[in-house]
Amino acid sequence: MWPPLPPPDESELERAMRVQEENIAAAKSREIDLQIETDKLEAQKKRKPIRILLLGESGKSTILKNFQFHFAPIAFKEDSLAWRAVIHLNLVCIVNFVLDLLHPTSPAQPRDGGGRSSRNGVDPDSRSTDEIKQLRMRLRPLREVEIILFKKLTMGKCPTRRPSSVTLGSDQSSFKSADVVVRSGSGWKVLSKLHGPGGQGQINEVRQIIAACCPDIVSLWENETVQSAVSSHEEFQEHATTFFLNNALRICQMGYEPTIDDILRTRLTTLGVEEHRLTLEGGQIEQRNQEWVIYDVGGSRTQRAAWVPYFDDVTVIIFIVPLSAFNQVLDESVFSLFDSFQLWRAICNSKILAGITFIVIFNKRDLLAKKIEAGIQFKDFVTSYKDKPNDAQSISQYLRQKFAGIHKELSPVNRPLFSHITCAIDSQATSIVLIRSALIFSLLPLHPGLYAYLQFAKFC
Ligand SMILES: Nc1nc2c(ncn2[C@@H]2O[C@H](COP(=O)(O)OP(=O)(O)OP(=O)(O)O)[C@@H](O)[C@H]2O)c(=O)[nH]1
Ligand SMILES: [Mg+2]
User: Fold this and answer.
1) What is the ipTM of this complex?
2) What share of the chain is helix, strand, coil (3-state, %, to 5)?
3) Ligand 1 centroid from CA 49, angstroms
4) Which domain of life is it from (predicted)?
5) Which ligand 1 atom minimizes the distance to the CA of 268?
6) S-S: 367 plus which of 55, 219, 311, 324, CB 3.0-4.6 Å?
7) Does residue 322 line the site of ligand 1, with CB under 6 A?
């Protein structure tokens, strides 16, 4: 019993001393309780990091960048200068790709413009072609720039842009894609070294060459043959080509600093599995200082075996479905949307993932809207859609229901599924998806009952 009963013959002085000792002991005890509480909270903060696996088709790395920008803005800003090299590489790859496309030996080269001729008798196409010839000569240094930047990003390895099916002249690099492919693990670690001693000199040189080429890049983009080639070439339908070429004047300046829009548009194909640790900054959610480990994977079909070892330890899977992919065919002649369905089925069916929370993000709603506007009929590619309205909202809802149906069919017990529709290159629009996702993967593992409440509140 505390405090013990006072002795029966206690004097006034003894009583005063006893009370003082008891007060000191009580204060000490309160201090210890407080320390225990604080330790508990600290331990809670330092508990196992939440592990998030990004799977699915195009948009995974862009969603990752949104998470980094939104929840760790200081760290993101620190990395943003390192992104400059990747953005320059994107622009340079696009310019070189366009020049390859318009090379006289390229079968992909646009045909003559239907024999048009101007009033003064000069054929505008030949004038345009002459200009391209001159621009090709003047933009030659960008070939070297592409190789230097690739080597910087890949620790000296050779460029890994996909080999072309198009045969080009021997002095031309032969690529069929303007995509930048960098092996996982080499990404940020090497990017940050770009600004270290030694790397800086060469990078500055590269920036000077790009700045010097700026007027010619702008002229190339203003050339009518280039405009028509880009607007008609399949490769560029979904690519951020026009964004980078439209912004070339800004991006090529020596003092250029990347914006969030530039970074979200950047293409850097992931190879393998990349681990990104993100410590939450600011006061967005109560789990501040909580650590998230986000695994970003290469999405191509050949890389999927590499995902499996990461299934074991994850808390949440974010599965990306590009809404605009319904009419696209993958390298292996498989429809992209069909591939997404198959992959989703396999993931929902996986025994290792039975206890996992899934978030499906239906991405690229802007590109879906563009396709609808261009008159492309969804039902021509997804016959089960029948005669439902050919508008973006109806199509998105249809796909949402399809994916939810597969999840339900393959979930023997009720398990959480959350889904969102967004456009990942729009950081503002995507922020609501991120906040909701953060709430889900911070709270749901602690309070499984929350799912029923969130469903009730029409949160998912
Ligand atoms: N228009 C548009 N482009 C997008 C959207 N989301 C991503 N992109 C672009 O699509 C391209 C590919 O996106 P990534 O995020 O790199 O795709 P990924 O899933 O990581 O691809 P892999 O690494 O090859 O598996 C990038 O250029 C992005 O800017 C979107 O909602 N709309
Ligand atoms: Mg990626």
Assistant:
1) 0.99
2) 55, 10, 35
3) 26
4) Eukaryota
5) 16
6) 324
7) no
How does pLDDT run along the chain (460 residues), one tens digit per residue? 667 788 888 888 888 999 999 999 999 999 999 888 877 776 665 667 889 999 998 899 999 999 999 999 998 888 888 889 889 999 999 999 889 888 777 655 554 443 344 444 445 466 677 888 899 999 999 999 998 888 777 665 554 444 322 222 223 333 445 556 655 554 544 555 555 555 678 888 999 999 999 999 999 999 988 888 888 776 666 677 889 999 999 999 999 999 999 999 998 888 888 899 988 886 555 555 678 899 999 888 888 888 888 888 888 999 999 999 998 887 667 788 999 999 999 999 998 888 888 999 999 999 999 999 999 999 999 999 999 999 999 999 999 999 999 999 998 887 888 999 999 999 999 999 998 888 887 666 555 566 666 666 555 5
Residues with Cβ within 8 Å of residue 169, at least 6 apart in sequence: 103, 105
Of the ligands numbered here, which is closest to the C-alpha atom of 370?
Answer: 1
* Continuous segment of H or E residues that includes residue 211: helix 199-222
Distance 59 CA to ligand 1 centre (A): 4
The ligand placed nearest to the CA atom of residue 181 is: 1
Decide whether any atom of ligand 1 lies within 6 Å of the 59 Cβ.
yes
- What does pTM read for this prediction? 0.81
For 123, other C-beta atoms within 10 Å of its C-beta total: 14
Measured from the Cα of 422, ligand 1's closest atom is 31
Domains in the chain, please, with CATH? Answer: 49-72+280-456 (3.40.50.300), 80-109+122-179+186-265 (no CATH)
